[in-house]
Amino acid sequence: MATIINANATSKTPPSTAPPVEPLNNDAAxxxxxxxxxxxxxxxxxxxxSLVADPASxxxxxxxxxxxxxxxxxxxxxxxxxxxxxxxxxKPGEKRSRVPSKLENGxxxxxxxxxxxxxxxxxxxxxxxxxxLVLFGAPVTTHHPHTLLCGAHVALLSTLPLVxxxxxxGETWRQVVALLLPIDEVxxxxxxxxxxxWLGAVPIPLDWDRxxxxxxxxxxxxxxxxxAVGKLLGGTLLKxxxxxxx
Amino acid sequence: xxxRTVLLTVANLLIPVSILIFATGFFxxxxxxxxxxxxxxLGWNRILGDDWQKPPxxxxxxxxxxxxxxxxxxxxxxxxxxxxFVQSLIRDGTALPFTAHATSPTITMPRVKAITTGSIPSFxxxxxxxxxSDTTSTLATQDTWLAQIxxxxxxxxxxxxxxxxxDTWLKLFPDFFDRADGTSSFFVSDFTExxxxxxxxVPNELLNSDWNAMIMHYLGLDHIGHKAGPKSPNMIPxxxxxxxxxxxxxxxxxxxxxxxxxxxxxxxxxxxxxxGNHGGSSPxxxxxxxxxxxxxxxxxxxxxxxxxPIKPSRGNExxxxxxxxQSDIAPTLAGLLGFPVPRNNLGVFLTEFLGFWDxxxxxxxxxxxxxxxxxxxxxxxxxxxxxxxEVLETGEMGFECFSLxxxxxxxxxxxxxxxxxxxxxxxxxxxxxxYKFMHEAQDTMSSTASNYDVSRLVFGTGLAILVCALSYLTxxxxxxxxxxxxxxxxxxxLYAALMFASSYVEEEHNFWYWATSGWYILLLLSNLRKxxxxxxxxxxxxxxLVVHRVIRRWNQTGQKYAGADDIVNSGIFHGNNxxxxxxLIGATYMDIMIRIARHVARSIATFDNLQNVxxxxxxxxxHHRMIGTVAVVPLVGTAFVFKLAFTAKDxxxxxxxxxxxxxxxxxxxxxxxxxxxxxxxxxxxxxxIAFAEWQRSKKRVATRQEGNGAxxxxxxxxxxxxxxxxxxxxxxxxxxxxxLQFFFLRLLNLSPAAVTTxxxxxxxxxxxxLGNSNAISSIxxxxxxxGISGYNITAVGALVFLSNWAGPVYWSLxxxxxxxxxxxxxxxxxxxxxxxxxWVTKEREYLNELARKExxxxxxxxxxKEWGRHVALLTLPKFLFAMAWGVAWHLGVTVWxxxxxxxxxxx
Lengths: 246, 907
Hints:
The complex is a heterodimer.
Chain A: H1 2-8, H2 27-53, H3 55-77, H4 102-135, H5 144-166, H6 170-177, H7 185-199, H8 217-235
Helix pairs in contact in A: 2-3, 2-8, 3-4, 3-5, 4-5, 5-7, 5-8, 7-8
Chain B: H1 2-26, H2 45-48, E1 62-68, H3 73-77, H4 84-92, E2 95-101, H5 108-117, H6 124-130, H7 145-151, E3 153-154, E4 157-158, E5 161-166, H8 168-172, E6 179-183, H9 193-199, H10 202-207, E7 213-218, H11 220-228, H12 235-255, E8 262-267, H13 283-286, E9 289-293, E10 322-325, H14 329-337, H15 360-381, H16 394-397, H17 410-424, H18 430-446, H19 454-473, H20 483-498, H21 502-506, H22 508-530, H23 540-554, H24 578-608, H25 622-650, H26 660-667, H27 671-703, H28 710-725, H29 733-747, H30 752-769, H31 793-804, H32 806-820, H33 831-862, H34 864-905
InterPro entries (chain B): Alkaline_phosphatase_core_sf, Phosphodiest/P_Trfase, PIG-G_N, PIGG/GPI7, PIGG/GPI7_C
GO molecular function (chain B): CP2 mannose-ethanolamine phosphotransferase activity
Membrane topology (chain B): Multi-pass membrane protein
């Protein structure tokens, strides 16, 4: 029976030897990495009442602010994928016409990867997470915008920083899925968001008759809180630890 | 090893003991007064005059009691009601409307008990309701208004009773009725016959003048509710039919002289929720209508609300007019027809009817007799308190009644209220005090919180903890800590915690669905960790999760979203679409047939080669397989036809898409005989295959070969066919989905601990996915008489359990196969080691779970008063379900049946 798996299995994913992601070594990064979750939670708290009143449009309206916050966070605090600021240099046979200015350096090295991560988050992570939400019991026949936007928020919180840091290297992503990466604030944020969103489903069936028990308010709440908690723990207490499984 | 076995055995034996001890303390003790009430000496002659005790003249001498099953208040009083004639009577002032609060459990038999005795039936009556023929639950020896009418001397001799409708009444009141025609409510698809069977007797009975009480009990409206809910298109026509019935009876009362003094009561025994079911305590279920009708009522309706139709009160959408208790019917009838209030009554005479008596002493007498009768029950409950008919000093009472800063217990409060009644006798404010006492007594005595036997609860809980401790000792070491073990522990801890939230008792399925989803993802992650799987979106764990997503939507269950759309009710299986359903059912049967055929082929091969081959593992040839299939077709075919024939009677909307000719021939078949053939065929096949495997195992022993547990697989497949036979047609495709999940789980090569977790989650999930919940109303009785023509309590009980726990039984057996990888040829495991480790953990966790459930019951008792009625009502049914899980499922299925399958697998 096990052979069926083996037929498709390419390799045993080795545990990652990469060190945990460190925030950039400057004061702004060290400071902002702690301010950022406060800002994200404030954004959430600020929009909570309208989220309860009208989930779909509020989720849509807060999508852009959240994306900006996340982009600002990764650009200020995190090393972009590969760690080298100029990717263009890598291509062989290309003429180097001029030395890039400092601003251009910043744009090329940070903002562009940040927006690429946003694009990937929107195109790949959001549909994937939405599908997982449905598999976990999100309504199939109704509330389509709610579920999709909920998936988008979870994706922005969890995967955008991770794409920025790790790029699209297949091997790394296997390690991400198999929980083999060492924990850091980015990976901790992902795990926290996903677990938080899952735990967010618990209050829905209670008979408290509160407006906020409706779909998907509690899921989004769980995701935001989980993100903040996961990021904090991942960046401090659990930093560098690996998830031991067996 | 030996001590482990002993400890485990002791622990298992202690489970039912602890549950029973807990149960005896948990089910409220009710003082019971035997004998028939009589008018008694009241005293107070010194104050109220010598002849005040003469029973006042009764305004009525006949009663027509029309029960419409599940007649919710809005069906009569609401704006969308079809009962326009009753509404016109309310406007005329010749009908007095109420909403009669029915206490949980809202099912017919306890409700009829409440209506006739005025008492609040205990939850034990629920169990007796299912064991319908049980004679200990009859009311033949109890004091009811029926018994009182029978005993009363009317103008034309002793009272006579006639009864038409639901045969519950005939079972409760054997030999009470001079004329009767009972109707059984076995097939709920019957909307018309059950009612015509009542209606056809009515015109004749209205011409007869010999009876004093005519009872009618219509079932059709309840059947419509069960089938299609309160918004069914059949509902309004049925209400109109009932309304016409009321009209013809009422006009007979108006026109016939011998019916001139007839009181006509129309009531529901309980209501229904938005899903059309009942049994629980939601407002819809507990709010049946109650209407008293008679031309004479215009005397007492000058000041009552005559608006109709009317809007419900704010806060409760089913509360129309005044909300009274269902038990109030009994004393009210007693007063209006002039007989003593039944002895166990906790109802209060409805104050609206006092207007029939012009003189104050008569009114005082009526109420005082009612109050005095209730006082006797209170007295029997609080034996240490003084409830005398004399004014007492504070010193004699033993506590201060009228001080503001002392906190009185329930009993002391009642004693004080009774003192006030005694003090007020002869003044003009005695009405107020008597009513206050009666209402307080009613509230206190009907709440169960005050009546637990605490020492037994503590003892039972202590035993449960001991069970935990014993099984804990049998555990092998906890290390290495596995994700499966952590997940198992977390699930149990969270489950135990959530059981304290009453809504998670109602919505328990959500917890299991949620935990199972998480478990599949964990399985995915831990598998991907071991070896990467490129097409990970088609990973077996993901596929199992997809199947799980479909399974959880199959049946909507629980209370909060009762009646919401699910796959079964979405219409894709109904009417002309039912061929979709039957194609899926057919596929399920086909799958099982192929499997059983393989086992039979194997057995034939065994005997075919018995003499000449040394090797015990003889492969069956095509020839054998063909014979096997031919041998199995009749069995599976019969099972399928049985299901079709049964569904055609039970749920005809599910067979509408099958072509006419086939259905016609199927409908003529004898259902009982078919079911017996299926069960017999299953037993025969089982014996045959077991015999063949026994032959093989003898050979294996001779040649020292290892078996691969094929018999366990055969047992599982035969059992699956049996379980399908015990499942409603619309749920049968679920077994195909279960099979798929089983297939995917097999691919995952689960560790024993992971199998244990999977088993726990899937047994619970499948229980709820099949449409069950923790509400009594969700128990499905339709398959409990399969193959049984008479009444046999053991057989019916077993079938009730197996048909409601079919999913858990299926997964319990499936997990045995997952555990040992039976039937596969490749894997070698150290069976003995595995056996111990897994079974022990499994046992222990179930015991823990059980103990926690009990703990919960105990906890709710501790905080009983604060938590109030709601929780008490919830915990009772949950406790019954916990009992069923603990005793019947854990001991009966997991230990016994699972052990049997494991043992068969070792042949």
